[in-house]
Amino acid sequence: MPVIEVLETIMLLLGGLGAFLAGMEIMSESMSRLAHGELRRMLNKTAGNRFAGVGIGAAVTMIIQSSSATTVMVVGLVNAGILTLFQATAIIMGANIGTTITAWIASLGSLDVSVFLLLFAVVGVFMKMLSKRENIKLIGDTLTGIGLVFVGLSVMSSAMDPDLHPEMMGVIKEALEVVKNPFLLLLIGVVATGIIQSSSAVTSIVVVLATSGVLIGGTGDGVYYVVIGSNIGTCVTALLSSIGAQPNARRAAIIHLLFNCFGAVIFTIFLLCWGWFGTSFQDTVLNVIFPENYQFQIAFFHTLFNVTCTILFLPFAKGFVWLANNLLRSKKGEASPEEELIAHPDERLLRNPSVGLAYLYQETGKVFAFSMDTLDKAFNAFLAKDTSVSQSINERNGEIAQMSRQEVAYLVKLSANSLVMEEEKTISSLHYVLNDIVRIGELADNVTKYTGHYVNDGLHFSSEFLEMLKEMYAKIQKLYGLSREAFEKKDFLKLREVDALEDEIDNERRRLVQAHIQRLNEGKCQPQNSSVFINLVGNLERAADHITYIAHSIEQNQ
């Protein structure tokens, strides 16, 4: 066999695979950006409905064209405490169904229509070059990705064409068809997928080989063991991504592995038992549905495997959660993501900016709550004349500053992605929000200093003044509740209530200061009280301003 023919075949095969994977990546990226907010909203709708979870997992995977990416995203969301293990289980099952679309796309490469699909790449490039509208450019990218997928399939098919490379294909066919052992074929699927990190790519290669007349494992059901193995191999990505994550995130990756392994065991036994009756599942069933069309038979089997496994295992979703919890038991004193103030910004979510941004938005709300709780503690300490909390408030401020720096660093990483305008505006607004949160913490620190003067200088404030101060702070707490609701739900109607209450607080500050000046003039108040009094009231009013700014940050996202 000429060396040049071997090199040409290898180069064509690798080049075709590269074009295929590049097309999948471009298509995934552009479709994700087109559906930017929808991915987040879909994942938020899972609640406790396992059927909704399956549908959402399938839909998200069809959009981003990668079950591995969906599972890694789910691991990240579980790590952040956004999804429960039960919700994650249903989404993972759905992701396995969603990934089957790639095999169907690959099987189209054998049809005459694939020639026209190649033109999508050219059409997509021109759409991106000539249009100024963001959505049209993204549609152009999607078409370019589809075109590249079929370019890759076409090139791989050329590499495997027995008419162009008869000797090479003869050797490949003999080598691949001689492997008959089902467990060895399973292992081939596992290893190949583990290396390429894409079950879609492995299944597509199997389809391309079938198009060229090469069936791994020869005639019969041999090729389907490879497909089953690829479903186990795809778990490697999620397992690797869960290293160093919260226990629940690692459990989500384990559930993915258990689901695919149990499915593989059932279908392997099923195919082996079918073969004992003297015929293969392919000849008896698949060849009847798609006569002599191996590409569609493989795509159909891939879909059948994942849909059947989901139907079988979905009723036992809680059982998978129980099993994962027992395989990876919680250590004593271990905090869940929900119990923690804030998880470290999860790098797994950077792949999909809209989901990563939604996660960070939620975490920012937690830091906002922590900052407000710090102000509450400082104010209550003032009323109680308690100077012992000063160190605690100072430490809390350090935590707030540290969390703010982590989130800013995460925002910078998110900004490096290709973003739509809405995401860019949200990132910009979050920078300002984090600054406001830090300022609230700093104002709480100021309040503890005034408490020190209050106690150490032997100052006295009347019960009337303290009651007025409590009334003002009660309004600040109510303002916080309205602002956080407006911020988290992006409720623009709440802004009117926020502004009205903030005006009341401003008026309250002026009323308090004027009343204090009047008491000074009447000799009812000591002059040395003025510094603490006016600064305390002023700092509380400024805290209300920052709380209001956070509510109004949602306007920057329009």
TrEMBL record:
TM regions (residue ranges): 6-24, 72-95, 101-126, 138-159, 224-245, 257-277, 297-323
Domain PhoU stretches: 469-553
Gene Ontology terms, MF aspect: sodium:phosphate symporter activity
GO biological process: sodium-dependent phosphate transport
Keyword field contains Zinc: no
GO cellular component terms, semicolon-separated: plasma membrane
InterPro entries xrefs: Na/Pi_transpt, PhoU-like_sf, PhoU_dom
Topological relation to the membrane, as annotated: Multi-pass membrane protein
SUPFAM superfamilies reported in the protein's UniProt record: PhoU-like
Keywords, comma-separated and alphabetical: Cell membrane, Membrane, Transmembrane, Transmembrane helix
Localization per Swiss-Prot or TrEMBL: Cell membrane
Xref: NCBIfam families: Na_Pi_symport
UniProt-recorded name of the protein: Na/Pi cotransporter family protein
